[in-house]
Amino acid sequence: MDEHFAKIRTQLASKLANQQMHATTLLAVEETLKEQGAEITPTAYFATLMSLLDQQKDDPEVEEMRAAILNLLAIVFPNVPVSVLRSQYTATLSVITTILALQPPPTAPSLRSLVTCLEYLLIAQDQTTWNHTTTLKALQTLLILSLDSRPKPRKRAQEAVRNIVTRPPLMMLVHPGMKVVVQTTLQILKESGNGVAGAAGAKDKDNATQMILHTLQLVRMVGKAWPAEQFLPLCDILLHLPKLNNAFLTSSAFQVFESLLSPKDSPDAPAVVHQEEPAGQAPVETMDQIASRLAKVTEVMTAVLELKPNANDATLMPLWLDVVRAGFVESSRLQKLMTAGGHGAQIPQEAVVPLIQLFKVIFPNLDSSNPVSVHNATVDCLKNLISHCITDEMIDLAVQEMKKNRGQQPDKKKRNVIDTISTTIKGGFDIRYQSSWLGILDILKTLFERLNHAANPLLVSFLPLIDELRFTPAFTQKAHLDVVLSTAISTVGPRIFLDTLPLNIDNPEERKRGRAWLLPLLKSSVTNTELEYFATTLIPLADRLNQKAQECRENGMMKKVYETLIGQVWSLVSGFCDLPVDLEMAFTKQIAERFSNVLYSVPDLRPVLCQALTALVVRNQAIVASSETDEVLERKFLITKEEASRNIELLQQYARPYLMVFFNIFQATLPQFRGYLLEVMRMYLSISTPTDLQETFSAVLVQLNTALTTVQPPVQQGDAPPVSHNLMDLADIMVPYVDAQSMSNLYSVVASLFANDADAALQKKAYKIVNSMAETETGRVVLKTNLEELMRNILDTTAAATATAKRARLSLIGQVISLLEPTDLYFIPSILSEVVVATKEVNEKTRDVAYALLVAMGHKMKAGGVISSERVGDMEGGAVETPATISEYFTMVTAGLAGTTPHMVSAAITSLSRLLFEFHKDLEPSMVSEMIGTMHLFVNSSNREIVKSALGFIKVTTVSLDVEVVRGHLQEIVGGMIRWSHEHKGHFKVKVRHILERLVRRFGYDDVVAFVPEADKKLLINIKKRRERAKRNKKNGNSGMDMDGEEEEEETDAKKSTKPLYMQTNFGSAYEDALYGSESDLSDDDEDEEGAEGKAQQKKSNKKKQGAEAWIKEDGDTPLDFLDRNVVSRVTASHPSTQTARKVKDLSSAFKTSSDGKLMIEDSDDEESNGAGEEEEIDETAMEMDQAENNYLESLRSVDGFTRGQGGKIKFNKTNKRGAGKDDDTEMTEGGAGPIRSKGVSGKDQRAPAKLLGQDFKAKKAGGDVKKKGRVDPYAYVPLTSLRKGAKEGLSLTNKSKQDKRKGGKPGRRS
Question: Where are stretches of biased composition, namely Basic residues (predicted)?
Fold first, then answer.
């Protein structure tokens, strides 16, 4: 509502009278509410607007005013409380019905607003109100409007009826108004149907048809709320409509059928919402209601099957298929509900979905002679029937019969459903269905997915058929076949799949196809299968391939092929380890040792093996934690929760040996490639027994102590890290899983490394390990026990902290702060100076941690406690206990302003800025005022680093503090920083300008300019003009102009404040937004008269400069020689195709044409005078730059081109038949006196290249050359060089071509 009203308020100056009326009315209502002192709420809007509407409800002369009020009410009604709408129901309904009865009737916009008001008014009423006649009459009024001849009012009324009946009162399954809807629609359909059948004229027949179509549209929208007892009467009428031989009526009837038969929970169906319904009290359909609906759906679908249209009908057949799909899917859903409720025996036999009959009736629609729309609808229908109507009982029966009839031919008359469907799909690969093969493959894929593991043995016979089709050269859609094969692999299993379609890659025999292309499909599809098959079949296959690779040492190509195949075979291990069904039997000691050996010996296979071993644990843990029953899990995954638990127990036995393997590999792997090892180690640590964990950790700790006491040689870049570093990483990984005693032992080892500044990496790892301890409950207990020692250790090692370990050290300090007791707050002043200086670190992440730590310390101080001065390291004086407050904390930070170095002072100012932004509401105004006054001294400092931080403090102050607090220091702020407005170095001028713009926005121009010296007022005047220009552009609707005005800023802040903190994407960097953001969006150009278009063009140009690109021009298909010294001349800053297009456009529009099509070339003076008033269509600046670039490149590459060397001497491009574009060593003076030698010229004699010949004659605002007074005519003077000797068809000095000379004719005429 607020957004709509905000938009309406801006339309006060609109050129449209209706928009002006809306804005005027809204502002008048709001002004009235303000005068009355009432709170502006939806209820207040509702009361005022309804009172105003009641006064003008029957006055025909105020139609515009009434339309404006109704529009505002349509916006207000959805936000009015239900209690208000119920209490004011009678009066409101009286006003609405009075307006609806006016003559002439309301306009379409007013009618839509009335419908909206009436809709929300009726939705809010309870069951008692719906028992009144007036309420039902109001609903009848909406029903009449839903059949209106005007499209927009009709559609809005239909939507209103749908929204009303799909929101029944509390604890009611069917809306009480649905009775009126049913009676009205059925009566109209009957009467209109009879009118169509017995119409005397075409006009009466068309009117009756239109009425039926409108009514069917309404029924389709309310179909989900249609009562079950009125289902059959409606279906009888719908089944009668196709007999009227009207395609539109038949199509609409099928659409209504689909809406009625679709599941109630369909995503396309409007949900039935109950008013004010408590959670968990939604009325549920009873079993009797489900059975009744099932019987009616069965009866309707029996009749629908008899209405099958012609298969060639591209309009009706897809609609009929949609009805069949929706009806039988709904029937299947209802049957599943009854079966789940224990009433499966009550399902009538005729209600069972006749899948065999349906496939026989529907599948022939895929004939190649039928339209594509029929093919698509048929495929969609059959896929849904397979997915929803094939029951588990059908699948089990088919499996039993196949096992019973193994080796025997089944009786065709007693085939089960699955067998019949399979046979039908196989017949679809006949030539008559060729155009539908992709759809049939999609149906087959759906059947594989539905049968899941039962696809073996039910669908194995399809595999040779698909394989044969894939090797058919005429079939080009092999990607679709691969999708079906992938689904078959995941359902049938790799054992049966590869037995049916063997790879034939290790020993291919003649007449057997090699299928190495199956390996990538297997990798992406194998899951939930037998691990034993990989161990007994595929690992020996990889060994045989390895033997063949060793035999092919002389044939490098074949060796590479075999090595690739070996890698592809081993890559399948991750799929076989993805929830294997035989883990207890297949994962033996031999296979575990083989995996370990491969991990050691083949580094390239380590990632895939680690991924496989991780999957063994993860998938079994997921089964154990699943909420599904064992029956469901066994049908889906062939495994139960008990079996998954036993699998995890089996893996626990191998956890410690595998951890030792992982640890050894970890130490031999470079840090940047350890990601997969970290994951698998954490997984096996999580399932290890406490005893194994204790023994493993003890071994690591012993080795760590030994490595720390051993002197290790320096490590070169690129080598593996030292042993001590690796063991520290391993200890860090094991921290979350060890007990308190082990963690305490580890702490005693790593705490001593805080002072080791000789090895920065080792020191950093020590801090990281303690941080990892603090992130676990056990670790926090250990650290709290040793907290005093830890704090003293941190304070003593301040000087030894390296830059590499700074961030980890600050993180540890933050953990210590969170563990502090109120009596241990002495640690904060002791460590504060280090944290303050860390805010000036070069590393951005370190600065972020320092800022966060400053804030955390502030919150700790704010929570209260005691600071004992005798426990603070450098504190002088006696023992004093100071209460911990936020003011005391600011006093501590302020002490840093007295630092001896500019760096320390700057860090203190920056820290104060961050803390003031966070805690300004918790400080006394006097303290804030004192800090602002202190910053005035630092703004006047001569040190740039200090001034830069001080300006940042002022900007945060301007943004975050209240206006009245800043107003008292406005003179000091403006006067102090204005002196830096002339300093360009370090962006001081820009920073000052941004702060001044903020001040002008908050305090106004007059208040700020009063404190600006006269010599500097030009800057404020410029800011004022640019702001006014921006506001004008905004008022004129120029959306391309970025604004920095007050209204937009307030609106943005309001929008931000309405969101919770966790939903704001930049809430963590709010301080950075205040300090570095909030910059002026106004142009920095000082030209006051520059318009919006110029600024937009400037921004566009800047973007081009920032994203500059380069292209290389090529001549046809000739390869470009990058060793050629002239290759640089082919690099251009604009796309060559763009240049070509632009040149063609320029040439086509540069000259006029006569009536016979000839070009008319005029003198430059006439051209300039004639074209002075014409509109410029080309960007002249861009054209000149491109033309200049093209001329320059042409002078370097063309046959007649030349360059000027040292001293302005001309150097011609020498080309001949043997080699074009080669440099000539001959140089000539401009007068042609002869060759000279250019080598050996000193640098001081070298001159800048002169302009090209003819450059002075180039027109500045058009193409071509111009004559200049006192200069020669701009003709092309051809030099008499050897270059003309090789020209084949050029013009000679007699202006005759060689062809003309041979013919003896006249020279060709130029047109």
Answer: 1299-1311
